[in-house]
């Protein structure tokens, strides 16, 4: 019921914000599109459970029919994306087949003065992929769960200065109460930014959030403040932030913790054939069970390359160091993947990748190595004058 209410509310907001300015922009030419989607992905893994000693080969087939609808005017836009994700596994000793879902909504509007902007994002996944739980996640569990993120924001631009107020809600529910604890996170964000010129800006970002668990894990409150610098050049986009986070647990079983919080992002733009994206983050993980909190340092590099008009390649690598706060454990996790995507026609693409991931842990039984490969065929056919804003690239698994 919670999920249904969130999706209905998000959809109503999308329709409302798209039409809110319709009476003021009657002369605007609306651009609309509807995009049928159909994707089939076959993946092989050498160590499905990420086990240090009991490695099991497995094949996963994912069938994803779906649809995206989009409308855009001069003052507003709304995109709704949905796929049914049917997972079929072979080679395992247990039946993990399930039907998942992916729902994404993006909508926004701005006033005629361009000072006031309203935006909303909502994403929902029914999945077994632990990566959706937290960007700094270190878990390898394969439990089926649902996660919904609801993110509305208001932005007011004064010219050189701007103020952004945002709210974030993250709702997590596991299929089996024995496999994980349901939780709810509520977060408030306030941000002030000042632009010195067209290229350089400095800002202050403050966040406060509370996480409530349904199980025995301790609820907590966190506060974080950062100074953020941005530079937008002709060829490079740079963002760097530094600050502090403090976390207070409701129960006496865990001591309060704090850490230096920072992030850095560098992205090339305007280059004809190659794009480079480098991201570095240092912070505490947000989601955990029990006392599994750690200070994470994560580095990630993506290189996208257009070889010819219809052939694109991507190389992705990441490294994360996880230094646990309450147990004697340190993990080093590596990942490397190379992929190619070929656009056969305007509406069909094929792609494939090979990759490896491994973890070296000071905790006995937490190491693993996994080698994988996948092949996917995608049918994505926009109908109309609009441009799909959410539809996945051929690389997405």
Note the overall shape.
Answer: globular
Structural class: mainly beta
Task: Write down the Rg.
Answer: 22 Å
Total DSSP helices: 1
Q: Helix proportion of residues, in percent? A: under 10%
In short:
By secondary structure, the protein is mainly beta. The chain is built from one helix and 19 strands.
Describe what this molecule looks like in 3D:
This protein has 397 residues and is mainly beta. The chain has one domain (2-21, 44-384): Porin (Beta Barrel). The chain is built from 1 helix and 19 strands. It has one helix at residues 2-20; strands at residues 31-45, 58-72, 76-90, 98-110, 116-127, 145-157, 161-174, 183-195, 200-213, 220-232, 236-249, 257-268, 274-284, 294-308, 311-324, 330-345, 348-361, 368-380, 383-384. The chain has an 18-stranded antiparallel β-barrel. The longest helix has 19 residues, at 2-20. 21% of the residues are buried.
Q: Which terms summarize this structure?
A:
18-stranded antiparallel barrel; mainly beta; 1 helix; Porin; 397 residues
């Amino acid at each position: 019921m919670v999920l249904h209410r969130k999706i209905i509310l998000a959809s109503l907001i999308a329709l409302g914000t798209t039409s809110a300015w319709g009476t003021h922009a009657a002369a605007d030419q609306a651009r609309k599109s509807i995009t049928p989607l159909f994707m089939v992905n076959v993946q092989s893994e050498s160590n499905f459970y990420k086990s240090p000693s009991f490695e099991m080969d497995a094949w996963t087939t994912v069938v994803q029919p779906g649809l995206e609808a989009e409308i855009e005017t001069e003052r507003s836009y709304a995109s709704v994306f949905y796929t049914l994700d049917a997972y079929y596994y072979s080679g395992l000793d247990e039946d993990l087949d399930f039907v998942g879902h992916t729902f994404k909504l993006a909508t926004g509007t701005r006033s005629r003065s361009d000072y006031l902007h309203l935006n909303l994002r909502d994403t929902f996944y029914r999945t077994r992929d632990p990566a959706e739980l937290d960007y700094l996640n270190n878990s390898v569990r394969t439990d089926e769960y649902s996660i919904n993120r609801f993110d509305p924001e208001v932005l007011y631009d004064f010219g050189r200065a701007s103020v952004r107020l945002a709210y974030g809600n993250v709702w997590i529910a596991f299929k089996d109460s024995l496999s994980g604890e349901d939780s709810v996170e509520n977060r408030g964000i306030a941000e002030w930014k000042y632009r010195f010129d067209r290229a350089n800006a400095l800002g202050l970002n403050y966040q406060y959030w509370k996480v409530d668990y349904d199980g025995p894990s301790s609820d907590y409150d966190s506060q974080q403040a950062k100074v953020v610098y941005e530079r937008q050049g002709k060829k490079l986009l740079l963002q760097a932030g530094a600050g502090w986070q403090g976390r207070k647990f409701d129960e006496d079983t865990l001591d309060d913790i704090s850490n230096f919080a920072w992030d850095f992002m560098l992205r090339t733009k305007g280059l004809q054939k190659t794009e480079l994206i480098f991201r570095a983050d240092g912070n505490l993980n947000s989601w955990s069970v029990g006392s599994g909190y750690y200070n994470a340092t994560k580095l990630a590099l993506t290189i996208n390359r257009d070889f010819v008009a219809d052939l694109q390649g991507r190389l992705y690598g990441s490294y994360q160091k996880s230094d646990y706060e309450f147990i004697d454990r340190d993990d080093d996790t590596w990942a490397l993947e190379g992929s190619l995507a070929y656009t056969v026609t305007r509406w069909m693409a094929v792609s494939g990748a090979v990759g490896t991931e491994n973890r070296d842990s000071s905790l006995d039984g937490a190491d693993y190595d996994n080698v994988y490969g996948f092949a996917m065929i995608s049918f994505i056919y926009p109908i109309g004058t609009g441009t799909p804003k959410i539809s996945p690239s051929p690389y997405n698994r």
